[in-house]
Amino acid sequence: MKESKRYLVTGGAGFVGSNLVDELLRRGHRVRVLDNLTSGSLENLSESLSSIEFIKGDIRDTWTVREAVEGCDYILHQAALVSVPHSIQNPQTTNAINVTGTLNLLEAAREFRIKRFVFASSSAVYGDSDTLPITEKTIPAPLSPYAVSKLSAEWCTSVYSKVYGLPTVSLRYFNIFGPRQSPESDYAAVVPRFIQVISNGSNPIVYGDGKQTRDFIYISNAVSANLLSVESDQAIGGVYNVGCGNKFTLNTLIEKLEKINGVQIYPNHQAERPGDIMHSFADISRARLDLNYRPLVNFEDGLRMTTEWFKRKEKTIESGPITQLLKGSRIKIPESLTFHDDDTITSALLGTGKSRRSKGG
Ligand SMILES: NC(=O)c1ccc[n+]([C@@H]2O[C@H](COP(=O)([O-])OP(=O)(O)OC[C@H]3O[C@@H](n4cnc5c(N)ncnc54)[C@H](O)[C@@H]3O)[C@@H](O)[C@H]2O)c1
């Protein structure tokens, strides 16, 4: 049996992070999460909270970061300001969280001799590439402060590998989708937004003609790429595309959702948004070679599972208010978690938690 290791998952209350947490626990590892609950929520950790150490804190705070990193073997760094439109409105905050926050983690990783630092980068670094599929050799051409911040943080990560010998890997995620991805904000990713709108009986907004393409990747594939990155020595210092090696238009996505849901969808077309990319399609041969990465779940199956998950979630929410959910069996809050009142817990669940730091164990 493999030895149990301690992982720090930053952004572990978010979509990708919480799915990583579940898989790490399933494999018998110990998990610590550092998250400030800005876009993530404790609801995403409802099934794992009693089995992990949770630190409510900000990666911009160096002391919190040191506390979170000390005693860990590996770091899977997911925390970020993730929205492109939000980054256009707030370039400095984007830089502070995505670049300085990553540097804080790298510095602590160096100090505490972390065995592997995996950074969640993004296909956004490529901008609108003319040559498809996109390989890691494609020259980056960011189109937004978000993309610039991901590229800067990626370079910081690789410099820590070259200069300080910290074993790092950067993963350029393409369009990940799956359970727990938030459909809520105006800037939400396209798959959960479409699923939610369709389930409400409305029609989704499509920016542009719907012919833009995306390499959609189901969440379990991205989780597997992270865990393979920890295991592969060949990957150290490397940058890898993490997609499925397929491209689908938004119009195709809508057709597939029509079929899965048995409904007719009439998209509401609006003007393209600044910073949006027209085409995105990954060449994943480098990840295949060095990480032994293989997409395990295809687009259609992933869409079906995601739709089912959203339907189940809707039923749970319909059955009672959030505070009842908390008191029920699905959500466990450890006693040591220092949230004091129902309002704070509810706001944390809704992703609007207060900035107080809390720790459960
Ligand atoms: N989902 C995708 O398709 C996709 C694509 C490319 C890259 N990524 C990258 O993957 C990572 C995870 O994305 P996600 O989709 O799970 O987003 P998410 O918003 O669900 O998760 C991000 C998490 O980081 C936390 N966070 C934000 N700022 C923080 C801070 N200052 N300190 C501590 N925690 C903070 C949030 O509360 C949230 O839980 C991000 O780095 C993102 O840039 C995601």
Task: Give a structural overview.
With 361 residues, the protein is an alpha/beta fold. It is 40% helix and 15% strand. It contains twelve helices and 14 strands. It has helices spanning 15-26, 62-69, 84-89, 91-111, 145-164, 190-199, 219-231, 250-261, 285-291, 299-318, 322-327, 342-349; strands at 6-10, 30-35, 53-56, 74-77, 116-122, 168-173, 175-177, 205-207, 213-214, 216-218, 238-242, 248-249, 268-270, 359-360. The strands form four sheets. Strands 11-6-5-4-1-2-3-14 form an eight-stranded mixed sheet, sandwiched between helices. The protein has a two-stranded parallel sheet with strand order 7-10. A two-stranded parallel ribbon has the order 8-13. Strand 5 (116-122), helix 5 (145-164) and strand 6 form a beta-alpha-beta unit. Helix 1 (15-26) packs across helix 7 (219-231). The protein is globular and about 55 Å long. It starts with 5 loop residues before the first strand and ends with a strand. Mean pLDDT is 88; it is low at 320-361. The site of nicotinamide-adenine-dinucleotide (NAD) has 29 residues, from helix 1, strand 2, helix 4, strand 5 and strand 7.
Bound molecules: nicotinamide-adenine-dinucleotide
Largest sheet: 8 strands, mixed
N-end to C-end Cα span: 25 Å
Approximately how much helix is present in the residues? 25-40%
Please tell me what the overall shape is: globular
Let me know the number of strands: 14
Stretches where pLDDT is under 50 for at least 5 consecutive residues are: 320-361
Mean pLDDT: 88
N-to-C order of helices and strands: EHEEHEHHEHEEHEEEHEEHEHHHHE
